[in-house]
Amino acid sequence: MGKKKMTSERTVIPENLVLTSGSFLNLLNTLVNTFGSAGESMIYQMGHENGMVFCREVVSKINNEGESLENLFEMVINSASQIGWANMVVEEFNPQNGKIKVVLQDNSFKQFCLRLNMPQCFFLRGYISGIIKELTNVDYQFSRSECYAHGDEHCSIRLVAED
To answer: 85: which residues sit within 8 A by CB, 6+ positions away?
Structure first.
């Protein structure tokens, strides 16, 4: 009997890859457990790059002529909310003073923040900073947040422009 010949089939890579929040968190925790605080930086940077790319994609699909920077930011944040990380609400938008605050309602990482007693928002911090970087060409850094892990009623991410 001869060997069965394997036929190669073309593989179609799906446009969207869906991970549960638990699976995504496991990936993030592996980075942190393997690389320590460098892993947190990698997670932030991954979010930052993804936020910039996402922002570029959203802005390219809309007629943004004449839109204020604040309206563009709101449109991109609203689009990002549709992904399912969290319902993101812009609470403060003042790029002239270098201050941005986004509240994360229905944060998909809430259960992990509570269970681990530590924030799990490195990716989202980077994601939002990437969006604002793409719109303003100014680097914003994480300033502080409110978090379920610290007993706060909601999560929020505050960013300030780098000098």
So the answer is: 104, 107, 108, 109, 123, 124, 127
Q: What is the mean pLDDT of residues 57-70?
A: 87
- Cβ–Cβ contacts within 10 Å for residue 119, how many? 20
Nearest CA to 32 out of 144, 146, 112, 151 is that of: 112
Among 116, 110, 126, 140, residue whose Cα is nearest residue 40: 126
How many beta carbons lie within 10 A of that of residue 40, not counting itself? 18
Amino acid type, 126 = G
Domains, the chain: 21-161 (3.30.1380.20)
The DSSP call for residue 14 is: P
Distance from C-alpha of 141 to C-alpha of 118, rounded to nearest angstrom: 19
Cα angle 77, 43, 22 (rounded to 5 degrees) comes to 80
pLDDT at 158: 92
User: Dihedrals φ, ψ of 127, to 5°?
Assistant: -60, -50
pLDDT digits (tens, 9 = 90+) for 4-15: 555 555 555 556
User: Which residues neighbour 11 within 8 Å (Cβ) at sequence distance 6 or greater?
Assistant: none
